[in-house]
Write the structure tokens for this entry.
Amino acid sequence: MFDSPPRHIMNKHEQLQELEREMECDESLPLRGSNLVFGEGSPDKSIVFIGEAPGVHENEQRRPFVGRGGHLLNTVLEEFGWQRSDIYITNIVKRRPPQNRDPLPEELEAYKPYLAKQLDIINPRIVVPLGRFAMNYFLPTAKISRDQGKVFHLHNRLIAPVFHPAAALRSTSVLDLFKKSLYNLPRILEQSEHILREAPQIDSNTSLEDLPHQSNLF
């Protein structure tokens, strides 16, 4: 077997393929009874969407966000002129928990290093966590009901949490906020250099309760 070329001479697609192979071979990862759902989309774009874990449809198709929640996300993106090919989308936990239960803390911890490697390869300007589990990966002190729709400057990236589409399917009021937050993304992307320059940089342990809303920056 030929060794893979050094990562510094591999493009992003090749690096992600290598990382996916590494995950397939990692027998220490939990939930190995389910299929690996690594992620899809363009790693050359500036924006990454991150959910918590695959569901039953994602497990069957080995693709993220292909169930009802994924269809809603696609529909809203198309409403303001984006396609799935305009983003990269993945989950923290990359195998389906039984009965679609919430990921356990130890499952989240086991998969976090691989998400970090994914983000290092893609190097997005904006990360959109979908739901509280993905949001708390970046912002442990955040609350989804309070902080979704806001923009945070963390480690030279913008973190823009949004309700999970599954939650939007269960509540009209959440759906309205979900759409409003997503509709802001083109403007945030357009103004991202300005926001990164002007917004105060925080760290993962910053208390967000009294942090001013950054909407005046975009």
Summary: DSSP finds ten helices and seven strands in the chain. The radius of gyration is 17 Å. The mean pLDDT is 92.
